[in-house]
Amino acid sequence: MAHLVETMAYAGQVPWHGLGTAVDGNMSPQEMLVAAGIDWTVSKRPAYTVDKPNCWNIIDPTGEAGFIRAPDSHFLVRDSDNKVLSHCGEGYVPFQNAEVMDFFKKFTDAGHMTMETAGSLKEGKDIWGLAKLTDKFSLSGDDEVKGYLLLNNSHQVGKAMTIMFTPIRVVCNNTLTQAMSMEGNRFRVLHLQMFDEEIQKAAEEALGISGQQMTKFKEQSEFLANKRAKEFDVDNFIAELFQPNLLIERAKASVKDDLPPLRDEFKRTAELVEEALHTSPGASMNSAKGTWWGALNAVTYVVDHQKRSQAEGNALHSAWFGSGANTKRKALTKALEYAKVFQEVLVQPTLFISFLR
């Protein structure tokens, strides 16, 4: 398969990335496991090498090569098709997909969340589940944001199982994955211990943080939606995210009056963000039009929906777990910084003068 999505199922509306197979709503985590095609197991198997140099074929036509057990070396293998997912050491403990999806069960049974989507990325190396929480809020009455938990389990050495809080703006399905900690660290479980009741209990405690994060994100969103964003500042915001070298070069110019408008020097991605400020879904809402909330969502919209230089599945992986997710988190931080500067301008005009210098 050319893109990174191997298998996937979703309940409800078609996801923003447009991939997967539709299933009935209200599925249990185990039913979603089967529907998403991730009801397979992995096993840690010993690694071997040949006992003669230059005999790298498994079938040795000379019959002279034997095999030597490689000490403390294993492979993590998918049992359904014997696909090697990763090389691993003696201490690596694989987490089974069913065990990980069981994390959601207590909360779906209690009505605290519903399964939205699940699937496999990178030929089984990454497994995820997304569940919708009951928490939500609205800006200016009709700009709705819902809360989700995104769980990612990796069958690769060096990557921990992570749980992330993921608010999604309904009107445009923009996502913004955030760490499961008010201090900025994801909730992470290393593959050095069994996924037992103690770890699940700790993960359940982390779930409580999602409520705090929803409250915090609501406050941040309301703050951004109530701060006007001038075109000049938004252009600088976009350039900081996507073309920081452009700002550096312009700062070196001896005669700044001769410089063209900043947006005239934007490249493709920055141009898309500038366009999304006015044309993306929800851009004309009171909460977004001319505000820093609108500027943030212009970035998240482009990263989620319009950066198609890679195949669709690559875009999904990037938006949730890779460079796209990092860009969106940075955009939130930057938007808050710009909005706070504007807030301080109203009280301390001299601060704004020094900021411009």
Beta-strand content estimate: 15-25%
**Order of SSEs:** EEHEEEHEEEEEEEHHHHHHHH
Form type:
globular
Radius of gyration: 24 Å
Largest sheet: 9 strands, mixed
Unreliable runs, pLDDT <50, ≥5 residues? 181-185, 344-357
Give the overall pLDDT as a whole number. Answer: 83
Distance between the termini: 52 Å
Category from helices, strands and their pairing: alpha+beta
User: Please, how many helices?
Assistant: 10
How helical, in percent, are the residues? 25-40%
Q: Total number of β-strand segments?
A: 12
Concise account of the structure shown:
With 357 residues, this protein is α+β, with helices and mostly antiparallel strands.
Topology summary:
Blueprint: E1 5-11, E2 21-23, H1 29-35, E3 42-50, E4 67-78, E5 83-89, H2 97-109, E6 113-121, E7 126-139, E8 143-154, E9 161-169, E10 174-175, E11 178-179, E12 187-189, H3 197-225, H4 231-242, H5 244-252, H6 268-279, H7 292-306, H8 312-321, H9 323-347, H10 349-356
Parallel strand pairs: 1-2
Antiparallel strand pairs: 1-6, 3-4, 4-5, 6-7, 7-8, 8-9, 9-10, 9-11, 9-12
Helix pairs in contact: 4-5, 4-6, 6-7, 7-9, 8-9, 9-10
